[in-house]
Protein: Helix-turn-helix domain-containing protein
Amino acid sequence: MQHESRATTAPTGGPATTATPGGPTPESKGVLSPGRAAPMVSIDRYRPSAELAPFVRHYWIPRWHLPAGATHEERLLQYATCNLVVADDYAAVFGLARGVGSRILTGDGWAFGVMLQPGTARALIGAGRSVDSLADRPEPLDALAGGDGGLAERIRSLRHDDTGMVAAFEQWLRARRLDAEQGALINAVVDAVETDPGIRSVDDLARRFGLGVRSLQRLTAEFVGINPKWLLQRQRLQDAAARLRAEPSTGLAALAAELGYADQAHFSRDFASVVGLAPGEYSRTVQAETGSDVSE
Structure:
């Protein structure tokens, strides 16, 4: 198990590694208010063993401590994949929140999370469920095809041992003997969207992989539960939010053009409809949370 950087971020932070272990650690773009979480939530991330990288993007293990009576809301623009999560009171595979995902934290807590590769959830849940249904009704681990074999209780018993939790999960996953080829194409499609800014449209993405648009739509619906347009929009908005946090003086017109929008108005409408704040308002809010002075 290879240890990633310790950070103060949300319980479903961004990817800790590329698909190949040993690659660089990209910036986490999923957490909308990392400054607000910093005093209360810590997270450790770990890369999967090399042979499991086709199935696991990374492990995330958050722990939080809030004063009595206090609450903290984590707001997230999730990556285009599902997460397997074990905590004291639940253990399930969770699907994508179409808009902003959120979770209220209270008291002291922890979780063991697995950001799955985009092709993995389909294999884990079996033929009885569709991946898109996981967004509204997570699949309990003990209801997975073949059950969980005591995985949840094993992880709970190791809650203070990160290495042990990862080892327990990897032993369980190896025993399932998943076929890496089954999810290889969707993994490559999502990776291309996340890493190639030259892909601006569904047609661009379909051409990259030699697929018709309808075939691409069926692929993303089956494995991730969303359509290609959503996939491209989500990546644009994650990129936009990350830039607005890191560079609050970024011009919105230039940022819109860089992200492939036809104009600033279209970008601002997209951003506000999903995030709930206009881009400029979002930038000022997150900078205030970190103590920065951002003018109107």
